[in-house]
């Protein structure tokens, strides 16, 4: 399936400023349809849900459409889509609800590869319950998260396994399906962080074996909205803290306060935009998403080959991790320069990257680089092009110690 990056880029007004946006791993720019959808929701008038008047009905419809769109993106069920401000907030909310039934002797398995948002909520929930935390280790040379280690980590008292679908700094894509299969065999739930992974190819949470799948729209061209998707029947078994007067139905019982309904309209537009990345693809929205995101992934993979080989060919550059399966994300340092200096140098040359631990707190500690400022992260998404990559490579190549 052809991928027209020029047509894709034309949809993003922010890209007209002349910068190379290689900061997508921290959040993407938004296309015009998303901007228009948010503005139109406000323009038409919206109210809180559950009212008798048209503006409220519009909000009811937006919420339903948003749940359906996220479900199509990840392969879940609309009635199992919990919406909220971000993945971290939702994960803390779920950790309180899930962990309230844990006790001494119970065990939770987390990984050093994960973003801290899929580590700390579970560690803290275990601490409250007196449960034991067990750690899956990442190979610091390759960046891989070995599946075999889970045989020793899991047991009859394992209650939950938290694992990432892709590292937000190394790009590593662990064998999540194999890990969750082991968790299921042990009678444990699996909570999969798909925040970084969802932007970089098709997602099928059922094939991954995820009991809970977390994602964030701002990583895939949407507004700052998070979602956690689960089977509605599983959500029925959980009792989160909530107001006595708020809905007790699933998934609404997990959503506190008044929602940003206009942003939800932007999420729908973002999913529709992703479904059209490969052009005039036919079929259901889910089918179009699978085709378009596969085409976008192939586009990113080709560009990333140039970026990674270019950086690895430079004697003054060190890259971290060599995973067999990865997203188009690279983590690197430049000899004689701090990561902050590298990011500033690139910014002066109109190239956007991030530096620091990027919330990969455990991983950067295991790599031994956290106290020295960690590293520089450059990440490609579907709107990046060859010029973006070449500008970064030229700026780094010409800045030797």
UniProtKB/TrEMBL annotation:
Listed SUPFAM superfamilies: PLP-dependent transferases
PANTHER family named among the record's database cross-references: CYSTEINE DESULFURASE, PYRIDOXAL PHOSPHATE (PLP)-DEPENDENT ASPARTATE AMINOTRANSFERASE SUPERFAMILY
Lineage top rank: taxon: Bacteria
Family annotation (Pfam families): Aminotran_5
Residue stretches making up the Aminotransferase class V domain: 21-392
Membrane-spanning ranges: none
Protein name: Cysteine desulfurase-like protein
């Amino acid at each position: 399936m052809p991928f027209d990056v020029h047509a894709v880029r034309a949809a993003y007004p922010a890209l007209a400023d002349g910068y190379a946006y290689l900061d997508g791993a921290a959040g993407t720019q938004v296309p015009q349809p998303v901007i228009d959808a948010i503005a139109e929701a406000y323009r038409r008038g919206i109210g809180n849900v559950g009212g008798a008047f048209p503006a409220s009905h519009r909000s009811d419809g937006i919420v339903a459409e948003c749940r359906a769109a996220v479900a199509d993106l990840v392969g879940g069920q609309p009635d199992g889509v919990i919406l909220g401000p971000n993945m971290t907030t939702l994960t803390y909310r779920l950790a309180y609800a899930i962990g309230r039934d844990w006790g001494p002797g119970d065990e939770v398995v987390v990984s050093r590869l994960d973003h801290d948002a899929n580590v700390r909520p579970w560690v803290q929930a275990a601490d409250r319950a007196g449960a034991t935390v067990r750690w899956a280790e990442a190979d610091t040379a390759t960046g891989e998260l070995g599946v075999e280690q889970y045989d020793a980590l899991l047991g009859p008292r394992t209650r939950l396994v938290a694992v990432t679908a892709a590292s937000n700094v190394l790009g590593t894509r662990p064998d999540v399906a194999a890990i969750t299969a082991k968790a299921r065999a042990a009678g444990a739930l699996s909570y999969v962080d798909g925040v970084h992974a969802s932007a970089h190819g098709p997602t099928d949470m059922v094939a991954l074996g995820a009991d809970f799948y977390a994602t964030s729209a701002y990583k895939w061209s949407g507004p700052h909205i998070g979602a956690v998707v689960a089977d509605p029947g599983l959500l029925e078994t959980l009792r989160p803290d909530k107001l006595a007067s708020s809905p007790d139905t699933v998934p609404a019982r997990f959503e506190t306060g008044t929602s940003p309904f206009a942003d939800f309209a932007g999420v729908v537009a973002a999913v529709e935009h992703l479904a059209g990345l490969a052009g005039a693809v036919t079929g259901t929205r889910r089918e179009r998403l699978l085709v378009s995101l596969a085409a976008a992934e192939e586009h990113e993979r080709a560009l990333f080959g140039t970026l990674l080989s270019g950086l690895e060919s430079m004697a003054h550059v060190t890259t971290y991790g060599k995973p067999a399966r990865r997203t188009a994300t690279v983590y690197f340092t430049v000899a004689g320069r701090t990561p902050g200096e590298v990011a500033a140098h690139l910014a002066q040359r109109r190239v956007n990257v991030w530096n620091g631990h990027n919330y990969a707190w455990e991983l950067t500690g295991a790599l031994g680089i956290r106290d020295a400022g960690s590293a520089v992260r450059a990440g490609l998404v579907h709107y990046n092009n060859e010029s973006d990559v070449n500008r970064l490579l030229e700026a780094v190549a010409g800045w030797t110690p």
